[in-house]
Amino acid sequence: MRYRLLLPRAFRWWLAVLPLAVFNGALRESILIPAFGPTAGLMASGILLCAFVVLIAAFLVRRQPRLTSGEALVAGAFWLALTLAFELAFGAAQGKSTAELLAPYRFEGGNLWPLVLLTLLLAPWAWSRRRQEAR
User: How far apart are the first and last CA of the chain?
Assistant: First the structure.
């Protein structure tokens, strides 16, 4: 598959991640943190968001039967770039300081955001490898 065809499809699938991420954030603030406390609530939220990303990646790979591992890695890198751009632009639009923007990128207080970013990068590739090995 050529990248010019892959990126618009990867973008549409990334758009499917957005409502799940918003849902996850609402769930974290309204249920997980009040029920489990800040550290465990953040950890549960991070794990749940990783699971959502893995499921979306599975659907992407299944819908693209000729997707190579390299193309899947490009899709994951595209998801990562879109997410970073979105997060940083949204935070900047809210007037957050640089320190506030970068705080989630450290494993502190149960925050697993770096793991979510790694999952965004690698989930499409991992599913494509799994599918290729199953053949």
Answer: 19
Query: Two tokens at 50?
Result: 């990783």
Q: Which of 75, 91, 90 is nearest to 123 (CA)?
A: 75
Return the structure tokens found at 111: 């925050």
Q: With left for phi above 0 and alpha for psi between -120 and 50, is residue 74 left, alpha or beta?
A: alpha
Residue 119: both structure tokens together: 């999952």
**Closest Cα to residue 80, out of 128, 116, 129?**
116
pLDDT, tens digit, for every residue of 86-110? 999 999 999 999 999 999 999 999 9
Tokens representing 16? 């499917």
pTM of the predicted protein model: 0.91
CA-nearest of 88, 82, 85, 23 to 55 is: 23
